[in-house]
Write a structure and sequence with these properties.
The chain has 17 helices and 14 strands. It is an alpha/beta fold.
């Protein structure tokens, strides 16, 4: 009896450890899953299926002193069937995130999940093929993204060949002809080459190449920025048509908010690699809480030239944020509205939102007041001073020859480094300083060895 009691106690004590081991094994299994599930996880707050999820990802280019963090701690979810737009100025990291989703840019931190399965970093080959099949990209420059030596027929069929998505040659031809018709081109165009088409037609070919794979997620990297205004509407209508017919989800990358407002379900705003605000389209335009979002909205041009002339731009100044003690984070302030800020800023944003009064980002001056006040306003100088450290000088390369020359001529190297520092050539200054210090240390060591040898010989 005592032995049976002891064995029962041992089994009871071992049970939690076994459960913990099974949980760990399940987590490892999901991390290394070789295939995508049929459906993604459900968001408990709104009951929508999460197709793509970015969790605290960092993307860094270069190493050591030259390392540049293009994306910092970016997090957002994209629901199935919606259009999520990522907007920001040039160089803010929009395309970098889009290329990370299709596994071109590696993540230095964080992870990207597709249907709850990690697709960033090293993954099994079978999973990699499924990701390529399910996530396609439409590039910004239609001329550079198409193979000039291949016919349109081969360009559209390349994915079909690689994944063998056709039963026979007749089935492949049928799929390609149907797709070329759907994007507004003709079957006789299939025998031509990309250079024989206009920019809008090339973009249609790129769209056909992506859609023939029947993807679930399409990363559209500013697909209309290189097109004429009249053609933009046609390409946007094509995108919406495919979304309705095939339940496609879009990650739409753009910088033109006037277009983004009418095609997006939700919008994320990115500034210098940081996601600063995420909200529904109308919510974001009615309540642009982050000052950078307000500056983007105020920059939307007004069709009336007289109103545009008297428009007051809202200029974003990053120095208004004090993150020395209280670090910022992305916080939901209600209404499915996320804003980047510290505790003090979040409290202010929450108070503004709870008032329920839409914010006015665009203001028009009275023409009479504008004429009288125009001579007294001197804003261009202030704007220029804000950007004085925005980018390194053109010839600030930090060449190794500066270090090499400073090593043999350290005094001249230090003088040159001081001149470089004065004119903000920081990389050149560091190279001269590094070479000069190494030269002085080497000479000091030689003199010390010589004096030591001289002292030994005299003794």
């Amino acid at each position: 009896m005592e032995e049976t009691k002891q064995t029962e106690n041992l089994q009871v004590n071992d049970a939690p450890e076994n459960e913990a081991e099974t949980v760990v094994k399940k987590q490892k299994a999901t991390d290394t899953e070789a295939h995508l599930p049929e459906h993604g996880p459900i968001d408990p707050e709104n009951g929508k299926e999460i197709l793509l999820s970015l969790r605290n990802i960092d993307i860094t280019f270069g190493k050591g002193d030259r390392a540049v963090k293009a994306v910092k701690n970016a997090s957002f979810d994209i629901y199935k069937g919606e259009t999520f737009s990522l907007v920001g100025e040039s160089g803010s990291g929009k395309t970098t995130i889009g290329r990370a989703v299709i596994r071109v840019n590696p993540c230095s931190a964080g992870e990207i999940l597709y249907k709850g399965v990690r697709i960033s970093g090293k993954i099994p080959k079978s999973l990699d093929r499924e990701v390529i099949r399910n996530i396609q990209m439409v590039f910004q420059d239609p001329a550079a993204s198409l193979n000039e030596r291949a016919t349109v027929d081969y360009i559209i069929s390349e994915g079909l060949y690689n994944f063998h998505l056709f039963e026979n040659e007749a089935d492949r031809v049928r799929k390609v002809e149907n797709m070329i018709n759907e994007v507004g081109l003709l079957p006789e165009h299939l025998t031509r080459y990309p250079h024989e088409f206009s920019g809008g037609q090339r973009q249609r070919i790129g769209l056909a190449r992506a859609m023939v794979m029947e993807p679930e997620l399409v990363v559209a990297d500013e697909p209309i920025s290189a097109l004429d205004v009249s053609i933009r509407a046609q390409v946007l209508n094509l995108l919406k048509k495919f979304q309705k017919e095939r339940d496609i989800t879009y990650l739409f990358i753009a910088h033109d908010l006037s277009i983004v407002r009418f095609i997006s379900d939700r919008i994320g705003v990115i500034y210098k690699g940081n996601i600063v605000e995420v909200a529904d389209a109308e919510e974001l335009f009615d309540y642009p809480l982050h000052p950078y979002t307000r500056s983007l909205i105020s920059a939307i041009p007004i069709p009336d030239p007289q109103l545009e002339k008297n428009k007051v731009l809202f200029t974003y100044d990053p120095s208004i944020h004090d993150y020395s003690e209280d670090q910022p984070e992305m916080v939901c302030i209600g209404h499915n509205h996320y804003v980047w800020g510290n505790k003090k800023e979040i409290e202010g944003y929450r108070e503004i939102r709870e008032k329920g009064i839409p914010l006015k980002s665009i203001t028009i001056r009275d023409p009479n007041e504008a004429e009288t006040e125009a001579p007294a306003v001197q804003e261009p100088e202030n704007v220029a001073s804000e950007e004085e450290i925005s980018a390194p000088p053109l010839h600030d390369t930090g060449s190794k020859w500066y270090s090499f020359g400073s090593f043999f001529l350290p005094i001249i190297g230090l003088i040159g480094g001081a001149i470089f520092k004065k004119y903000r050539h920081i990389r050149n200054y560091k190279a001269c300083k590094k070479g000069a210090i190494a030269g002085l240390i080497t000479r000091g060591a030689i003199v010390a060895i010589f004096l030591a040898a001289l002292g030994i010989s005299l003794l």
